[in-house]
Amino acid sequence: LPRRLRLLQRIGGGGQKTIYRARDDEREGEVAVICLERRVGADGDSTRVQELQALARIRPHPHVLPLLDVV
Q1: Average pLDDT for 32-52
Q2: Closest by CA position to 21, among listed 2, 36, 38, 6
Q3: From the CB of residue 22, how many other CB atoms can be counted at a distance below 10 Å?
Q4: Residues 66/45, Cβ–Cβ less than 8 Å
Q5: CB-CB neighbours of 35 under 10 Å
Q6: Phi, psi of 33, deg, nearest 5
């Protein structure tokens, strides 16, 4: 993780992810950090990239947080 992020608390998870509450010193606020498990297999990385691109296309919605960064 970038140094600007400090994990504060594990708040959830399941499947292939763990979600943390974190402090982003650059944005001066709290954010959710989703840690995805690395997928095994030939198409795992390309599938993950496609999922992140789809997530980034979601427009503002009251029940969806914006994707700020991918590291």
Answers
A1: 74
A2: 6
A3: 19
A4: no
A5: 13
A6: -115, 125
Instruction: Answer whether 1's CB lies under 8 Å from 71's CB.
Output: yes
pLDDT at 44: 61
- Candidate from 17-31, 32-46, 50-64 with smallest mean pLDDT: 32-46
Paired tokens of 41: 């297999």
C-alpha span between 4 and 37 (Å, rounded): 21
- pTM (predicted TM-score): 0.67
* 69 φ/ψ angles, rounded to the nearest 5 degrees: -160, 155
Looking up tokens 């994990």 gives 7
Q: Which residue has the tokens 């982003």?
A: 24
| Share above pLDDT 90 across residues of the chain, in percent, rounded to a whole number | 30
pLDDT at 28 over 80: yes
